[in-house]
Amino acid sequence: MNRILSARNIIIFMMGLSLSLPGLSHAYFQGTQEQGKFVKPGYLINIFDILFDLNLTEDQIKAFKELAVKTRISIIPLRKEIKELRFQIDENFLSENIATEEASNQIEKMVELRSKISTTYLNVKLEGVQLLTPEQRAMILDKKQALRDRFKNLINPLKSFLK
User: Fold this and answer.
1) Is pLDDT at 6 greater than 70 in this prediction?
2) What is the DSSP secondary-structure string of 16-32?
3) Which of 29, 43, 89, 155 could be 39's S-S partner, Cβ–Cβ 3.0 to 4.6 Å?
4) 28: how many CB neighbours lie within 10 A of its CB?
5) Could you give the CA distance from residue 158 to residue 152 in angstroms, rounded to a whole number?
């Protein structure tokens, strides 16, 4: 009986979640659509999505564009290398005789590449927020907190229902 109730609760939770997730992006972006801005449906909030609401100066816009180009230039070769390495790892893992030492080296290389990408993205965010004024950063924090609150308000009734 407990297994049936557990499975039932999981199914109800998944159905509720699948019904509520499209509403999350709609709840956030509803205000921006009234202002005539195009927003891709289904995308959750990101710091760069908010930048359009911050009344950026021309200098800030130029600096963000330069930052985006610099990021692309440094990330694209890493992504290509990861793609190639992923293919090599698959070949090694699925071969008749797995070369464990080579696999270990490939895993270390993959971790290193992903670490470089993560470091690059975090440094870019750091550079990006340094381009903003304290008031603009406060606006971002407020919008992110509002989204978290909306998400909690959507999920909490579902959680209490499943208890």
Assistant:
1) no
2) HHHHHHHHHHHHHHHHH
3) 29
4) 19
5) 10
Q: Tens digits of per-residue pLDDT, 129-144? A: 899 899 988 988 888 8
Amino acid at position 67, single letter:
L
* CATH code for the domain defined by 55-131: 1.20.120.1490
What would the two tokens of residue 78 be? 């890493």
Residue indicated by tokens 């709840």: 27
Is the Cβ–Cβ distance between 42 and 26 less than 8 Å? no
- How wide is the angle at C-alpha 46 spanned by C-alphas 83 and 32, nearest 5°? 135
In whole angstroms, what is the distance from residue 116 CA to residue 32 CA? 34
- The span from the CA of 53 to the CA of 48, in Å, is 10
Q: Which residue is it, tokens 């670490």? A: 115
In the chain, where are the structural domains located?
55-131
